[in-house]
Design goal:
The protein has 275 residues and is an alpha+beta fold. The chain has eight helices and 14 strands. The chain is globular and about 45 Å long.
């Protein structure tokens, strides 16, 4: 199933509105009391996250009535919501501000991520940049596209596959277990350039546009990955867990590697000691 283009456009307009009304007015304008730590000092939520998710949830009642809404902040309050990802006829997965640490500290590398699933399969993904008001969108079987107001959409293609020693990528080494971090960092040194943007939205945008060769993850929160994986796949990339499973939004544990091809994916997990 693919969404009707009118629904896709309505979802994009909804996210743009949420950013304009709830996110951008608060950017670099948050009081200390408007920022709260969740699981750790680097896992933050702000009043803008909550307000943007509430805005999207309300709007979805009109755009996709009956859809299950799986928002990052709602799941934080009630983890049982996540159990509906696999079986819901239609679910909308929302990260109202991806890269909240960056947002809360005045860095403009943050975004809004939205994915639509049908019976557990991602059929639409959106990676939106509120600062520049542009986005990567992908639909199952319909390709991945870069779009912005007033310009024709541009179809995206991942970079040509190259060896790990010549590759550029993203690895959040600090998110791995302590007993894995040394091997991961040592492996990172064998690539051409490896860093982290602390923002899945922009990392997947870079991947789909052909600007980096791989994205390695630790943790499988669906609001971080469902849309980005679809964009990378529709741009010609490859996505697989280190144990060989294909990615699915209901998966909650594992190491996901998104790369320009199978051979580079195999090299990434080998070099980082993730086999």
């Amino acid at each position: 199933m693919r969404l009707d283009h009118d629904i896709e456009n309505a979802l994009i307009s909804m996210v743009r509105d949420a950013a304009r009304i709830e996110i951008m007015p608060r950017f670099r304008n948050l009081s200390a009391g408007a920022i709260t730590a969740k699981s750790s000092s680097i896992d933050l939520v702000t009043v803008a996250d909550v307000a943007a998710e509430e805005h999207v949830t309300r709007a979805l009642q009109t755009i996709l009535p009956g859809a299950v809404v799986i928002g990052e902040e709602a799941v934080s309050a009630d983890p049982a919501i996540l159990d509906q990802v696999a079986d819901a006829e239609v679910a909308v997965i929302v990260d109202p501000i991806d890269g909240t640490w960056n947002y809360a500290h005045g860095l403009s590398t943050f975004g809004v991520i939205l994915a639509v699933t049908v019976r557990g399969k991602t059929v639409f993904g959106l990676l939106y940049d509120p600062v520049n008001d542009d986005w990567v969108q992908a639909s199952l079987g319909g390709g991945a596209w870069m779009a912005s107001p007033g310009l024709d959409p541009r179809r995206l293609q991942v970079a040509p596959q190259r060896a790990f020693s010549e590759a550029n990528g993203f690895v959040p080494h600090f998110m791995f277990a302590k007993d894995q971090q040394l091997a991961v960092v040592q492996g990172m040194a064998n690539a051409k350039r490896v860093t982290s943007l602390f923002c899945s939205c922009h990392e997947y945008r870079m991947m789909a546009q052909g600007h980096v060769d791989f994205v390695q993850t630790e943790g499988l929160n669906c609001w971080d990955h469902a849309a980005g994986v679809l964009a990378a796949l529709e741009a010609g990339g490859h996505a697989q867990l280190s144990d060989g499973r294909d990615y699915a939004p209901e998966l909650t544990q594992g190491h996901l590697t998104v790369a320009t091809g199978q051979q580079l994916r195999d090299e990434v997990i080998s070099e980082l000691g993730l086999r």
